[in-house]
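Field reference: "sequence" (input) and "structure" (output). Example, Cytochrome d ubiquinol oxidase subunit II:
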Amino acid sequence: MNPAAWAVLLTVLVAGWVLLDGAVQGAGATLLQERNHDGSDRRRAPAERRVVLGAVAPMLVPGEVWLVAALAVLVGVFPYAGADLVDAASPVAVALIVSWVLRDAAIWLRSRRLKRVWRDAWDILLVVASIVLAGSWGALLGAAWGSGLAALVLGIVAVVVTRLHAAAVVAWRRRRTGPLPVIVTSVMIVAPVVGTAVVAWPRLVEGGISPETMGAYGIGAAVVVPLALALQVCAWRLVSRPLSRRDTSFF
């Protein structure tokens, strides 16, 4: 595999992660409140929170497989470009990692006890961590543009679009809408990744390892990529079916 092929693979892996995990981020960010038809906000009941989390739950683990694979490609194949990105936005990268860990902890631990105080505390943490995760991810994309303004704009865009994407996925799984809104928000959430890849392409390709080592790593990619694609297919098959009570029982 040459540098261009690896750069395309990295873009696909990152796009796969934001497509799946973006719905989880948006669901977490809006877990406590939802928008009424008249435009006002209302607090979600505990049962409604379980429905929202159950709707996006099939996208969590497969999405993180894409993220781990993308990090492996960035660190293993484009270490210099990755180091430049971290140096330029190290606080943002730290915020992304910390919020990612806290978000996952809140999802898995919120239902481990029945006390309402316990769940409410984890739900508040889940909301905050989800917003920070989406915002820091968008800001990291902006840092790849080499612009503080781009980091600010893309951070805000990421927070907004993940909410729209989550709302579309949840509504689709509850069969309140068709798949078209999900398709639209999927394009919206992937577009910044593709745009950033185009802007950062020269620096990314130049910041790679030797062609010989890339070729050796290609053998591993031939094993990992089909697995990631299989998980993607499984995730979308689960999401495409109507939401059932069994889907919400864990949360």
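The chain has ten helices and two strands.
Strands lie at 33-35, 41-43.
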